[in-house]
Amino acid sequence: MNFSQNIVLPFFLFSFLIGFSQDSADVYKKRVLENTEVDFLSSYYSQDGDNAAVSGGFGSEELTDATGTVIVSIPLNDDDILTIDAGISAYTSASSSNVDPFDGNKLADPFVASSGASSSDLWGNVTGTYTHSSDSRNDIWSAKASVSSEYDYFSIGAGGSYTKLFNQKNTEVNVNLNVYLDTWKTFYPIELRSFANARNGFDPFIFDRNSIIGNQNYNPDFKELDSKERNSYSLGFGFSQILSKNLQGSLMLDFIQQKGLLSSPFQRVYFSDVPDSFIENFQLADDIERLPDSRLKIAIGGRLNYYVNEVFVLRSYYRYYTDDWGIKSHTASLEIPIKISQKFTLFPSYRYYMQTAADYFAPFESHLSTDEFYTSDYDISEYTANQYGFGVSYTDLLNSFNVWNLGLKSIDLKYNKYDRNSNFSASIVTGGIKFIIE
Amino acid sequence: MIKKVIIIVLLVASLTSCVAVKEYEKININDPDMALSDKKADRNTTTFHSYREGAAGANGGKTGGGCGCN
């Protein structure tokens, strides 16, 4: 691919050029990590909107998610670190609950959450990472493996990276490779299940108990999905440079190739050329979303951080993204850490995001049944989003506060408010506490 | 667009690759707030972006794994 070659080639050429200026002098060998570090992370996320993909782009997107994570970094010797990262997440979702809107006691309605089994779920993840640094600390290798699971989805991942530092550690280049092999348990919208493939018929648990309103000859041409696997392969390149005593920047370039089932099996689509059928207030699906089985994503991003003075730091970020589904996106953010004392720092931040729509997106009831691919998932529609954030950080340089043999190192607390121009908003509170084991 | 970015990057990098800030001069560069990555506490925010937005990558966040479908 010419585009890829045009980007990758300069990165490699530049890496080689930089390589000639590397320092070869022996340096004092300090332990890569002095003590075991333990991070406790948590977050509470909530969102709401009017364009739920489960109900074809029309319905409640209300969702809450609480996550807790523990990250333990253990120095195995002077050069090696083992990091174990384990997390669990619990969510409740109005839109997911409407995979089966008829399983509760409430009125079937895309804006009313059903109380059935699909209304909540747990997600768990464990990742192990092994990192080795050379004696000069100019070469760093890492390898990682991960596994994550939720009720209808299972994922295993593996990856590795190599980092080279040059130019008296003023310059750094990095290459990383990650593979994720995922498997779906396919759950379709409840009203379509009895029409799957050759099983043409009405599920008595739904259709005997409820009357169809509108088009009474509901007979969707529904075919089950062939593939249940989703594989993701990513190749990333990084380059960072100290530009002066107060300025440094980095560039990142990622290629992500996804293959397999890239749609969500339970997201409905309504066709404009098919008569509408309802049970109570809920429109019965014409089909599920159908998307190509391949997607190539390319993202290039840069960071530039400037140390203004002892009080202010400017942290900026920009990313351009494009993929072969037709989405192009710009992301820009600015965070200004303000040190109000030796221990406390404030973090006001702003993030701007915009994207164009995927070629296969159309709003509620706008697709034609003759289309090959279709979705009404507003996450891949055209929109702009603004995010305002504020955080506070406490740093205990002397680890003076101790719990058992854990010495407190830092506490972070942040709040972010996120608003799209398409009737969607979200907020997230995140917290992090870092201890060192003395 | 991409070509312009690459050209700018190479120009900036070629101008600065000879600059070598000594270790003892890196006190400001080594400030934790100067790190060229997000804080760990920001990780779940980055994950929510990757699930709710079409774009992903080039931010140190997830590039795969998990459906993000709820």
Search tags:
heterodimer, A: 438 residues, mainly beta, 3-stranded antiparallel beta sheet, elongated, disordered N terminus, B: 70 residues, mainly alpha, 2 helices, 0% strand
Structural class of chain A: mainly beta
Tell me the strand order in the biggest sheet of chain A: 1-2-3-4-5-6-7-9-10-15-16-17-19-20-22-23
Number of strands of chain B: 0
Taking pLDDT < 50 over at least 5 consecutive residues as the criterion, the unreliable ranges of chain B are: none
- Per DSSP, the total helix count of chain B is 2
Cα distance spanning the termini of chain B: 34 Å
Assembly context of the chains: heterodimer
Most extensive interface between two protein chains, with residue counts: A-B, 108 and 53 residues
Report how far the terminal alpha carbons of chain A are from each other. Answer: 52 Å
DSSP helix count of chain A? Answer: 4
- Name the shape of chain A in a single word: elongated
Report the count of strand segments of chain A: 23
Could you state the order of secondary-structure elements of chain B as H and E? HH
| Residue-averaged pLDDT of chain A | 90
Largest sheet of chain B: none
**What is the gyration radius of chain B calculated from CA atoms?**
17 Å
Helical amount among residues of chain A, as a percent range?
Answer: under 10%
Main pleated-sheet profile of chain A: 16 strands, antiparallel, barrel
Secondary-structure element string of chain A: HEEEHEEEEHHEEEEEEEEEEEEEEEE
Instruction: Give the rounded overall mean pLDDT of chain B.
Output: 80
